[in-house]
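Running this now, will post back.
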Amino acid sequence: MRQRQGCLQGLLEMFMLTAAFDWLEKRFGFGRGCSCTGFGCGIILLIAFLVLACGIITGTDWFHLGF
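Update: finished.
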């Protein structure tokens, strides 16, 4: 069984995730690139952020496939 993360670890992970998302959004996000590539990258970044944030908040390991 996996040990539960502490409050500070979860806050640090959320801070790092938010900082990475902000940096990627400035570089590749909405309004960047020609035509709709900025919009497409923005949507992909938003979905990835939501999946990772839910994983951090709930403590779910999305890559563990065991039963």
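Residues 26-60 form one domain. More later if anyone needs it.
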